[in-house]
Amino acid sequence: MTKTWWRDAAIYQIYPRSFQDTNGDGEGDLAGVIERLPFLAGLGVDALWLSPFYKSPNRDGGYDVSDPRDVDPRFGSLVDAKELILKTHEHGMKIIFDIVPNHFSSDHIWFQEALKSKPGSPSRNRFHFYDGRGPEGNEPPNNWNSVFGGPSWSRVKEADGSLGQWYLHLFDSSQPDLNWENPEVAEDFEKTLRFWLDLGIDGFRIDVAHGLAKDAISQNHPDPEGLTRALRLDVVDMEKTVRENLLKDIPFFDRDGVHQIYRQWRKILDSYEGDRMSVAEILVFPTIRGTRYVRPDELHQIFNFDFLVAPWDATMIKESIDRTLREVATVGAPATWVLCNHDSSRIVSRLGDSDKAKALSMILHALPGGIYIYQGEELGLPDADVPSEFRQDPVFFRSNGSDNGRDGCRVPLPWLSAAENYGFSTGSPWLPQPKAWADYAVDVESADPNSFLNFYKKSLALRKSHPALGGEDSIQWIESPESVLHFQRSLGLQIIANLGAETYSLNFTSEVEILHSSRVEIVVQDGVLNVPSNTTVWLQF
Ligand code: GLC
């Protein structure tokens, strides 16, 4: 198989609003990312993925795009975007941007035109506008719920002031879903893909990639509330079979119609010089259906979100690794491994313990395929407790506060322990940073050889320099107790992760070197290796 950069790359996700501010408005910007490129190159990642910085009224953290081919002034300008692309490449890294094809912002000119147009007009046909049900049309066209809670339909006022049609929004009411059966939509996205590819980016992360095609809009769903709960990655209060039944046939997700869109996108990506790639955010069931998105003529990678929710349980982790590798192999795509992103709890908080977070990262970073790292993960940042009056996530509001939403993992990064707002901004950060974050600041962690940051740097450096890490050679499991994961890669590399409560001891007759471990004090003495509870080691035989 030809080696292409993305197949086993370490890709770092930047949430620009919270990365680095340079103009004192309390929100990060593109100039801030440029300023921090030396830090990112020094961290040892291969590529950057930027969450949206496009023009947006920012009702869903920029995933509500009002002009996908321009930069929101809060983040800078197109000149900054071009400089960022250029400088990232000069620093030896690739750069990919987010693309949001399921919906536009309601501020997008198309939607504004649609509001002013008549029912049945070509402008309305770019979205999903329908008449309501009931004698006055007072009932939404169907009973679907928004993924963020509440109904997935909102009613508009017609130009004459009367109550009118309804439009579909699978997310916030400010995010009208696009009608992908209308060729104008595909044409416009083709323009957007080409716009950024022409500027030299290396690919795209595709938002809600499984959502673009919809079926049976005129029909009610048998259990819309249940479906909304089933769609949560961290659902706990639902029986497995009930959840599986709900997820296996969703009228608005994972319909066959999405694949022709991605075949077309692949042709566009392939028509450019260099090695341009795409990674899809998908949530499909059963998971094997995800491989349809990465067939050889479609996209390049799919996110594997198992480790955003996987319990601290060796058997389940092993099953997930095996399943992931087995499934992607059926289409020749590489696996991806992710611990956190801007939609999930940070791994240290989710596992409740930074030792476990380190140990899990060392399992994932030793597996075949690509890895994604969410900004701040390399510092071992926990979630911040954001007071309700500061919360901005529509999930919090649409659920009437029953779900705290995702602000806790989006708090601006601490760079300098002693500086105002930890060097993130000279103005007041858009979400308040916790007092305790001085200890996590980049300057403090850089100076401490045993910090989380230096631990991540070492993992990433080894992943780059050791030919058996990353790569795509298969893994072989070595027999071990139930609570221990022990596997080998090629060239004498072995990985041992002890997830149990007791120390796991092994005897070696041959020479062995400890390449890396999630605890500093581990040594092999007189041929015996003691792996303490919640610890991973990489061994070289
Ligand atoms: C994706 C994004 C998330 C956003 C949603 C709607 O899941 O990751 O942040 O809210 O899509 O665009």
Structure notes:
It is globular, with a radius of gyration of 24 Å. The strands form five sheets. Strands 11-10-9-5-2-1-13-12 form an eight-stranded parallel beta sheet. The chain has a five-stranded antiparallel beta sheet with strand order 14-15-16-21-18. A three-stranded antiparallel beta sheet has the order 6-8-7, with no helix packed on it. The chain has 15 helices and 21 strands. It folds into three domains: 5-102 and 183-463, Glycosidases (TIM Barrel, Alpha-Beta Barrel), CATH 3.20.20.80; 109-168, Oligo-1,6-glucosidase, Domain 2 (Oligo-1,6-glucosidase, domain 2, Alpha-Beta Complex); 473-540, Immunoglobulin-like, CATH 2.60.40. Helix content is 26%, strand content 16%. Helix 5 runs parallel beside helix 8. The chain is of the alpha/beta class.
What is the strand and helix layout of this fold?
Layout: E1 10-14, H1 30-35, H2 37-43, E2 47-50, E3 54-55, E4 67-71, H3 78-90, E5 94-99, H4 109-116, E6 129-130, E7 153-157, E8 163-168, H5 183-198, E9 203-206, H6 224-230, H7 240-247, H8 258-270, E10 277-280, E11 301-302, H9 306-309, H10 314-329, E12 336-338, H11 347-351, H12 354-364, E13 370-374, H13 394-398, H14 442-447, H15 452-465, E14 476-477, E15 484-488, E16 493-498, E17 504-507, E18 513-517, E19 524-525, E20 528-531, E21 535-540
Parallel strand pairs: 1-2, 1-13, 2-5, 5-9, 9-10, 10-11, 12-13
Antiparallel strand pairs: 3-4, 6-8, 7-8, 14-15, 15-16, 16-21, 17-20, 18-21, 19-20
Helix pairs in contact: 5-8
The chain binds alpha-D-glucopyranose.
Alpha-D-glucopyranose (GLC) binds at residues 60-61, 63, 100, 171, 207-208, 281, 342-343.
